[in-house]
């Protein structure tokens, strides 16, 4: 069942920071529609996602919590994202994550 599958999945945090050579905004604007279309196929697995903002409120990266069987599948998903194929990020960190505070009821117990 879906609940059993969710128990087998792990959560991973993906933290991305844009390149800082002045090209990030143009890359983001040009590839956003393709990025959104690509990410639609993972909608059931992305528990949280959105842009990281700079002090002026402009996107300067991204943060996602993704359910996956293993880190390798998360890395593959991120590598094939149109944002990354276009070279948007200067840095990508992926780590296992334990959702503790205000943990959704559909996640397995800690």
Describe this structure in words.
The protein is an alpha+beta fold and 110 residues long. The protein is built from 4 helices and 4 strands; from the N terminus they run H-E-H-E-E-H-H-E. It has helices at 2-8, 24-40, 71-79, 82-85, and strands at 10-18, 46-53, 59-68, 89-96. The protein has a 4-stranded antiparallel sheet with strand order 2-3-1-4. A hairpin with a 5-residue loop joins strand 2 and strand 3. The two termini are 20 Å apart. The mean pLDDT is 92.
Sum this structure up briefly.
By secondary structure, this protein is α+β, with helices and mostly antiparallel strands. The chain is built from 4 helices and 4 strands, in the order αβαββααβ.
Order of helices and strands: HEHEEHHE
What is the number of beta strands? Answer: 4
Instruction: Flag low-confidence runs.
Output: none
Report Rg.
15 Å
Number of helices: 4
Structural class: alpha+beta
List keywords for this structure.
110 residues, alpha+beta, four-stranded antiparallel beta sheet
Describe the secondary structure blueprint for this structure.
Elements: H1 2-8, E1 10-18, H2 24-40, E2 46-53, E3 59-68, H3 71-79, H4 82-85, E4 89-96
């Amino acid at each position: 069942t879906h609940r059993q599958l969710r128990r087998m999945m792990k959560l991973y945090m993906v933290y991305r920071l844009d390149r800082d050579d002045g090209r990030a905004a143009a890359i983001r604007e040009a590839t956003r529609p393709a990025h959104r279309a690509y990410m639609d196929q993972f909608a059931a697995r992305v528990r949280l996602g959105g842009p990281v903002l700079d002090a002026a409120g402009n996107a300067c990266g991204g943060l996602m919590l993704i359910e996956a069987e293993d880190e390798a599948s998360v890395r593959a998903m991120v590598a094939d994202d149109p944002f990354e194929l276009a070279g948007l990020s200067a840095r990508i960190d992926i780590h296992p994550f334990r959702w503790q505070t205000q943990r959704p009821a559909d996640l397995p117990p800690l």
